[in-house]
Structures are given as C-alpha cells and as structure tokens.
Amino acid sequence: MTEDEIRTLLEDIKGLLLIANQDKIDEMKKKLLKAESIESQVYELCDGETTQAIAGRIQKSQEYTGAVISTLRRKGLVRTVDRNGNKIHEQRF
User: Fold this and answer.
1) Model pTM?
2) Could you tell me the residue range of the domain that residue 6 belongs to?
C-alpha cells in the first residue's frame, strides 16, 4: 500500500468512527466548551485559519488568541498543522 492509500483508508475509518459516535462527541464538546464562551467562538473558527486570521475575527490580540488555541489543543479539540508555510488550526471533530 502506498502512503496515499493508507492516508485515504485512515480518513475513511475516521469518518465511520465519527458517524458512529457523533452523539458522544457532541456531548463531550458541550462539556469542554461552554456555550457562547471565547473558547467556543475560537473553536468554531478553527477551520483552516491562522492565529492571525482568527484573532482578527474575534477582535483580540494574536497572543490572547494563541493562548486560547493552546487550551483547545490541550483539550484535544483542535490541532495545528503546517500548510504551505503557514500554521493553521483545524477542529479534530
């Protein structure tokens, strides 16, 4: 199997697990993210955006936004990846 085939297979497995466990995932997100909190707002914006872009959208400093993203990352809700030389943030679920 090639690396791309393995990646595709893993993405398919992840998709099935997410579908099968969506209720549990939603329940856990509610426990980890208080409604209307800054963490919840930042989480929703972690869809391939940089810290700078997210900071602009929530009208906070990059340092503050980075700290919130770090908290979300420690909770396992987001991940940060390097894409085309930019560090972007993505929701895990």
Assistant:
1) 0.79
2) 1-32
Same structural domain for residues 22 and 41? no
Q: Are residues 45 and 90 part of one domain?
A: yes
Q: pLDDT, tens digit, for every residue of 35-68? A: 889 999 999 999 999 999 999 999 999 999 999 9
Q: What are 83's two structure tokens?
A: 């894409």
Q: What percent of the chain has pLDDT over 90?
A: 74
Q: Are 18 and 11 in contact (CB under 8 A)?
A: no
Residues 92 and 46: their CA atoms lie apart, in Å, by 9
Of 63, 40, 41, 39, nearest to 51 by C-alpha is 63
Which tokens hold the place of 35? 């409604």
Question: Across the beta sheet with 86-91, what order do the strands follow?
Answer: 47-50, 86-91, 78-83
Count of structural domains within the chain: 2
For 44-58, b where at least 16 C-beta lie within 10 A, e where not — what string?
Answer: ebbeebbbeebbeee
